[in-house]
Amino acid sequence: MKGKAQPLHTGDEVPDFSTRDESGNLISKSSLLGTSYLIYFYPRDNTPGCTAQACGFRDLIQDYRALEVLVLGVSGDSPASHIKFIKKNKLPYPLLMDEDHQIALSFGVYGEKKFMGRTFDGIHRSSFLVGPDGKIIKAYHKVKAKLNPDEVLADLIRIREEAGQ
After folding, report:
1. How far is CA 53 from CA 40, 43, 58, 153, in A?
2. Does the pLDDT at position 118 exceed 80?
3. 69-75 and 36-41 beta bridge pairing
4. For 36-52, what is each residue's pLDDT tens digit?
């Protein structure tokens, strides 16, 4: 595959998706309607950047829960890999399966990447803060793994304050 689809942006509607988490629970766009959530896409379980990002969300999970925002991670890893990643890092939120990369493609965050002189297809680290109506409140592209959890939380607090919530 060359290139990638256009990534989704603030104000866009989340595309239809349906998948399972590491425990086999069905998660879909329709099952999430009425819920605010952060869905973040990361390249691979148990790599340094992805672990830093996942643990950053773990460390702030009480803040996200206090704001009634569900955190969901997505990668192309297998259920077994997700289970190991969750146990090793004590992640208190679900990781969604996207082994065929269809969800990442629909969000426009899968495509050609360059790393250490190689070109290959993969997930572009991105996060989307989604409102209960299924629209993207804020999109984050080319995120810094360690900074993303704090950045999203700060924006979420600011957005809620501006809305008087």
Report:
1. 9, 11, 9, 13
2. yes
3. parallel
4. 999 999 999 999 999 99
Asked whether the predicted pLDDT for residue 165 surpasses 80, the reply is no
pTM of the model: 0.93
Catalytic residue, candidates 27, 32, 39, 50: 50
**Secondary element (H or E) of residue 59:** helix 48-59
Q: Where residue 163 falls among pLDDT bands split at 50, 70, 90?
A: confident
In the residue annotation, 55 being an active-site residue is answered as no
As for how many domains the chain has, the answer is 1
CATH of the domain at 122: 3.40.30.10
d(CA 140, CA 137): 10
Among candidate residues 111, 161, 104, the one with its CA nearest the CA of residue 127 = 104
Domain assignment of residue 2, yes or no: no
